[in-house]
Structures are given as structure tokens and as C-alpha cells.
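Ticket #287: bound-state structure for adenosine-5'-diphosphate.
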Amino acid sequence: MTTRPSTETGSMDPSTDTPVSTEQAGRFARSSVTGAKGRHVSVENLDAYYGEQHAVKSFTIEYEPNKVTAMIGPSGSGKSTMVRCINRMHEEIPGARVTGKITIDGEDLYHPSVDVTAVRHAAGMVFQKPNPFPTMSIYDNVAAGPRLTGMKGGNLKERVEKSLRGAALWDEVKDRLNQPGIGLSGGQQQRLCIARTLAVEPEVILMDEPCSALDPIATLRIEELIDELKQRYTIVIVTHNMQQAARVADSTAFMLDGELIEVGPTERIFTKPNDERTEQYVSGKFG
Ligand code: ADP
Ligand code: MG
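RESOLUTION: The complex was predicted; output attached.
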């Protein structure tokens, strides 16, 4: 079996140890004038492979600014692969490759001149299992990203507080910032991870089943937070929870076998989908 190497995109260090130069970060950085607005993410004819395995097929979608889009579909339908292409994590897997185009406000994320670290900052990812840096304090977890760009002193403190406030965690942790991040509850850890993402000033927030390891109360808290965050960001959330999609998402996209079957206003997808397969999935007939 032959697999084509992912040379077009290069092989990148998955750690974020490389500081982003101002110029590179500037490529996707939000303008201070329009700071409150989310960005438009456009995916055009995206194909993603693991070796011969074709996991995402001719995928085209528009993620609207300041909206939440839910990605639903059975396990293995390509949801995670798809969102990992948006922050260029897919190409880290040996044998994996991507073709097609993804832009943020028209800027091509896969252009050869683009710094991968800048893309990962622009499109922050929150994972299923909260993954705070295990040896770091609450403060350092949030400060880690900004520190890589050289931020320190009062600016750094401000950024940490702002990010924790943005993640609706500040009031719960402000008196114990020096304690370990992993000492927090699961729901708090997930909000800490969201704060860590906010600290590098992303344009887009990608969430891959962010609540599946959380209890219902912590889940509700994250859902409320998502609702607040969309005032400032464009949000893509993978979920296998139909109620969650119905509660948080403006639009819902249904994937099956690597393909986008349909996307539309959440209410329509759940009540009057155009495709029979969507109807069968949302009514629990398979999945
Ligand atoms: P979902 O998130 O919808 O469950 P995934 O994007 O994880 O789907 O997977 C899509 C397809 O790609 C599946 O067939 C899966 O087995 C395959 N896949 C996912 N990750 C890998 C990997 N690291 N190596 C090889 N195949 C993978
Ligand atoms: Mg997945």
C-alpha cells in the first residue's frame, strides 16, 4: 500500500513551543476596530485522508460569524477529522493529508507562507476530555500561550484575568490561582481549557464533544458559556447529543460516511430535514 506524503503542508512540530512572530500572528489577528466580531470560515472541497482511508469527502460549508454550528453524525462519520483540518492538526498524523481550501475571512489557512502556530492560535480547539497542563497552576495554564508570544508583567496578568472571566471561571478561582489546574472539577477544568484557548485571542473556537465527559450541571454551564462566546467568536461544536445541538446551535450540519449530507438552521434540520438520512438519524433510527 502506498500513501502519499503530506509534503504540501510540511511536517510541523505539534507543540506550540515556537513563538509566533507579530507579522505571522497579524495574518489572522482580529482588527482592534472590529474586535467584537467573529470571522467567516469557509471550507471548500475539503478531502482528508489517513493513508488510503478517505475520511472527509468533498466537504464544503460556510461557518457564519457569531454563530454556533453543530456537527452531528454517527461515530466515524468524519466530524473530528473535519474540525481538526480547520486548525491544521490533521496533518500531524503520519500518512495523513488534506486537499481543498479553508479560509478565515478570505485568508487561506493552508497557504505555504502561513505559520501553523498562528493557525492554531486563530482556531483554538477544546477537546472531549479536559486536558489542562498537569504540572501547571491555574494561572500558568492560562498564561502559557501568551508567554510564548513574549507577554509578561501586568499585561500578562490582565490577559489571564480577562480570559478566565471570558470562560466564566474567574469568580471560582481568583483566590487560588496558584493551585494546580488539575485540582479543579471536570467542568471547571473544561472552562480552564476554554480560558487557555481564549488567552491567545482566537478567531474561531472549535469544540470536539466538549461536554461528553461532564455531568449535566457542568454541561449546562458550558452551554451557557458557548452562548456568551458567540457574541465574539465563530464556534463549531461536534456533539453526539441532539438536545445539545438543539439548545446551542444556530445551524446544524449532518455528516455521514465522510460527506456533508445537509446543513441548515438547527430547527429545520430537526423538524423538516431535506434528506431522508438526516431524518432517520435525528429521529434515532441509526447512529
Ligand atoms: P467522528 O469524529 O465522526 O467519530 P472521525 O473523524 O474520528 O469520526 O473518523 C473518521 C474516519 O477516519 C473513521 O473511519 C476513523 O476510523 C478514521 N480515523 C480517525 N482517526 C484515524 C487515525 N488516526 N488513523 C486512521 N484512521 C483514522
Ligand atoms: Mg469524533
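RESOLUTION NOTES: Residues 1-25 have pLDDT under 50 and may be disordered.
TICKET STATUS: resolved
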